[in-house]
Write a structure and sequence with these properties.
5-stranded antiparallel β-sheet, 16 strands, elongated
């Protein structure tokens, strides 16, 4: 049976996920590369005038529903403290295709949340509407049909990113590494509860 593994650069993080051991309070998540120390971030924030994102006026909405899911378009994507280049880069994502939930819009910027709960702003050019999920369970068994009794076709380790083909009820049909199968929605992050995807 095929075993789907996450990208090499993320093995440390996903081993931690598989062991259900999140980072200690205040520790930098291994999924992300920190762009600088806290003094550098504070200095950048002061240089930007210490401004925070405006909650209201000047917002241009796409008209698309919120929240909704997207995925990262590039292998290096900055997550900023606010909606603009004047805001400091807090994290740098280094994995193309990683799913994120869009929770707000401000002009060309999207406020997103990742599967670990990290929140920040990403420019819309760094996002794509291609739907993906990340395996968050210790191991996700992919089955031939959306049933626990169906034969297994592969096992996806925690941290595997897969393209979403179909989602219905408690199951999603996903594809990774040239293999497709049905996995339980509860072990995959990147869809809204009870969302149907065809």
């Amino acid at each position: 049976m095929a075993i789907l593994k996450p990208k090499t650069s993320f093995m440390a993080l996903f081993a931690a996920l598989a062991a259900a051991a999140g980072p200690a309070h205040g520790q930098v998540p291994a999924a992300l590369a920190f762009s600088g120390d806290s003094a550098q971030v504070a200095a950048t924030h002061r240089a930007a005038g210490g401004r925070k994102a405006a909650p209201g006026g000047g917002v241009r909405r796409t008209g698309l529903p919120l929240p909704r899911f997207a995925s990262l378009r590039a292998t290096k994507v900055n997550l900023r403290a606010g909606p603009g280049v004047r805001y400091p880069v807090e994290w740098v994502y280094q994995r193309r295709g990683l799913p994120v939930m869009i929770t707000a819009e401000f002009d060309a910027w999207r406020k997103v949340r990742d599967w670990r709960g990290t929140v920040g702003w990403i420019h819309r050019s760094m996002l794509t509407g291609k739907r993906t999920v990340i395996a968050t369970g210790r191991e996700v068994v992919l089955r031939r049909k959306p049933s626990a009794d169906s034969p297994a076709v592969a096992r996806a380790e925690a941290g595997v990113i897969a393209r979403v083909l179909v989602c219905e009820a408690d199951w999603c049909r996903i594809q990774a590494g040239g293999i497709s199968g049905w996995g339980r929605r509860a072990a995959l992050w990147g869809t809204l509860p009870e969302e149907t995807i065809k």
